[in-house]
């Protein structure tokens, strides 16, 4: 796993095309252009600008040169909050092998040790049991239910909210 770069646009496009149907129930409806290398390159420019500003970090999980997962720390807020959101997916051919759990654990350590964050939040669709297991294995706890939280697959859907606290109370 490593920070994504602008020259990863082709790998991102290929991964999204390969997983388009698989990811559709879990993601917002995407415009057709989203699946192109040009769209992914432009998105990477924006995400890396956010990285430069300390507001987000896009990571890719690779098997050789093939992107097999995407993990994003987003919406980083500093000051007294010191928090970020987490989003992720793993390629359909690699799902169920523990890769997401291992990658999320690495991101938790990175957020704590390198970014100095205090908290990470993530949300899952109510029926996304696999993602809930990933979060629980990585030390997250469920903190609530958010009605109509995100528009996923064209419908406003409820989400379970999870968080992990990265530092002791005194830190």
From TrEMBL:
Transmembrane segments: none
Protein name per the record: GNAT family N-acetyltransferase
GO molecular-function term, one example from the UniProt record: protein-N-terminal-alanine acetyltransferase activity
Keywords: Acyltransferase, Transferase
Family designation: Belongs to the acetyltransferase family. RimJ subfamily.
Taxonomic path: Bacteria, Bacillati, Actinomycetota, Actinomycetes, Micrococcales
GO CC term, one of those recorded: cytoplasm
Gene3D superfamilies hit by this protein: 3.40.630.30
Natural source organism: Arthrobacter glacialis
Pfam families: Acetyltransf_3
Boundaries of every N-acetyltransferase domain copy: 2-162
């Amino acid at each position: 796993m490593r920070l994504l770069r602008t020259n990863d646009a082709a790998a991102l496009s290929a991964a999204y095309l390969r997983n388009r149907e698989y990811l559709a129930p879990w993601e917002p409806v995407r415009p057709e252009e989203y699946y192109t290398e040009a769209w992914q390159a432009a998105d990477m420019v924006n995400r890396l600008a956010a990285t430069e500003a300390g507001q987000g970090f896009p990571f890719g999980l690779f098997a050789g040169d093939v992107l097999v997962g995407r993990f994003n720390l987003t919406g980083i807020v500093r000051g007294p909050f010191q928090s970020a959101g987490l989003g992720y997916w793993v390629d359909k051919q690699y799902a169920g092998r523990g890769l997401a759990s291992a990658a999320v654990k690495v991101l938790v350590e990175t957020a704590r040790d390198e970014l100095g964050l205090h908290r990470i939040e993530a949300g899952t669709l109510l029926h996304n049991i696999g993602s809930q297991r990933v979060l629980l294995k990585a030390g997250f706890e469920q903190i609530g239910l958010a009605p109509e939280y995100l528009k996923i697959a064209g419908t406003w859907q409820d989400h379970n909210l999870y968080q992990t606290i990265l530092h002791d109370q005194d830190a």
